[in-house]
Amino acid sequence: MNTVTSAATPQRTRSTTPPLATVVKALALLDSLADATEPVRVSSLARAMGTSRAEIHRQLVTLEAAGWMEQLPDGAYRLTLRPAHLGHAALRQAGIGERTAPLLERAARQAGEVVSIAVLDTDTARVVQRADPGRSLHATLLLGDRLSLTSSASGRLLAALCPQDVVEPLRERGVALPDDDAVGLINGTRWATSTDDDEDGIAALAVPLCRHGDEVVAALSVHGPRERITTADALAVLRPTAREVEQLLRLDTDGALGLYG
C-alpha cells in the first residue's frame, strides 16, 4: 500500500530558548500589584513574592523608570494607567473590535453621526473604536484621539463614573477633573454631554459601558454638530447599543467586559 503524505500545516514547536528570569519575576510582580486593592509597600510585596526587599525594590525602580509604576510620598507603590494601554492593544489583537464594529456602525447610521468608544488612558480619554454613518461629516473624531476629562462627553462621563481607585490617582497627580456639581449630575443621569467650549460648534453625548453590572470601564458616545445632537435622540440610539455591546463582550470574555484587558 502506498503511503500518502498530507500537506498539513506544520506544528509550531516550543522554543528551547530559556526565558529571562528577571523579566518573568518583574511580570509576576506586576500581577501581584494588579491583585492589590490599594498601594503596596516593598516589605509587603517581598513577603507576598517570597523574595528579598532589595530585589523587589530593584524591580519596582525599574518598572517605575519604564512608566509602569509610581511611588507615593509615603513610600508605597501602585500601578500607573500604562497597563490599560496594553489592555487596549490586547483588545484590538483579540478581534473584539471586529465583533462590536457592526453594532457601532448600525448606531452611527441610526444617529446619522459619528459613534465611538473611549476609555481612560493616563490623563485623558482615548478613542479606541469609532464608526461613521457613511456620509460626509463636519465633525471629525479619529481613532486614537485623546479627549479632555473636563470638556468632552466621554472624558467627563468616565471621570465621574469610573471606580474611585481609577479616578483618585488622577486627582492626586493634579489632573483636571469635572467639579463636584458636574459629577453629581452625571451620576444622577448616567449620561454626560460635552461642554460649550468647542468653538467649532461640535457637541457630544456619552453613556457608560459597564462590566459586573455597574462598574464603568468605557464610554459610548455620539459626536456631531451641536444643532443636530439632541439628548432624546442620542439616548434612544446609545442606550440600546450599550446594552448590546456589554452583552456581546460578556459572552466573548466569560463574564468580564474586555475593554480594560
From TrEMBL:
What is the annotated signal peptide range for this record? none
Q: Tell me where in this chain the HTH iclR-type domain is found.
A: 20-81
Against PROSITE patterns, the record matches this protein to: HTH_ICLR, ICLR_ED
The reply on keyword Transcription is yes
- Every IclR-ED domain range: 82-251
Kindly provide the name given to this protein in its UniProt entry.
Transcriptional regulator
Q: Does the keyword DNA-binding apply?
A: yes
Any Pfam family:
HTH_IclR
Q: Which organism is it from?
A: Streptomyces cacaoi
